[in-house]
Amino acid sequence: xxxxxxxxVGAGLMGRDIAGLLANGGYPVTLVDVDPDALEAxxxxxxxxxxENLRAxxxxxxxxxxxxxxxxxxxxxxxxxEFVVEAVPEDLDLKRSLVADLEDVLAPTxxxxxxxxxxxxxxxxxxxxxxxxxxxxxxANPALERDLVEISGDDADEAALETAHEVxxxxxxxxxxxxxxxxxxxxxxxxxxxxxxxxxxxxxxEAAAIDAGARNVGFDRGPLELVDLIGLDVHLATVDNLxxxxxxxxxxxPSVRERMERMVEAGRLGKKSGEGFFQWDGDECRRPTPExxxxxxxxxxxxxxxxxxxVADGVGDEATVNDVLKRGADSDVGPFDLAEMxxxxxxxxxxxARHAExxxxxxxxxx
Length: 367
What we know:
CATH architecture of the largest domain: Orthogonal Bundle
Number of domains: 2
CATH class of the largest domain: Mainly Alpha
């Protein structure tokens, strides 16, 4: 049954947009964060910018969404919520502590959706008395511009999964049911593969040239702009989370890792600080024009390679994996479309060559 009242925990950039989508979908929603300043910033955003951003994302605006949003600093404000999305940082201990506290507050039938990009609902709910109420409810970034919510949960019961599916549809996002849960789901694994490959290409080219090459073959954003978009600090934390399951598959080369850590220490976090690999003017990335775009074939090859891994792991079939990337990246082509365009044998040759040169796991061929 579709919930009547909803909640979001975490008033960051993603959490405030999820709350906005729920409110625009007609749900009363309570946004909770321990930081009153973050809540006030979210409130101002909802009152001033949300409607314009919904329209920019081609989402039909329903009345005044901000009127349906309440705010609180204590989880007790969610006591009557029937569907709650956690959108706190990618720290497993933090997420487990949060869902344990939610279990004390929520009704037994309430569902918890986790927007995790690098963990699994099983990881998050492992210490709960009722882990079957936890489902993956993962948005692409930016949530208002990307028509996708990934849904999964190996331990989740069918009622919880169906609730998540109904909510996603009600807020005008396309629910895509993954067949199995894996760390980084589907979209984030595809994204991690191209971001990792791009960091290896930084050994041979500048960020602007790498991203220009990627955009020339149809990417809406280059892979290093994507790192800026989510934040260098978040990207490195995600790489570390994924290492528990995948070893060094998504790790940047050591010298680039050191460079990125220095950037984080200097406050160059990407979009949210105004500078990362690129300069940012609010939401606009100020990309310099390179003398010549860098060859994007290694990045494409890594992406297609990861798509084959996802199918082999049972996360989704080729059509599902293709759909996830097209929706999550606002692209006309998915990884299997790119495999046809570039040629499987040609991409395999690129992978073999780059793997021989670098030893990087992201290039280890499975095609």
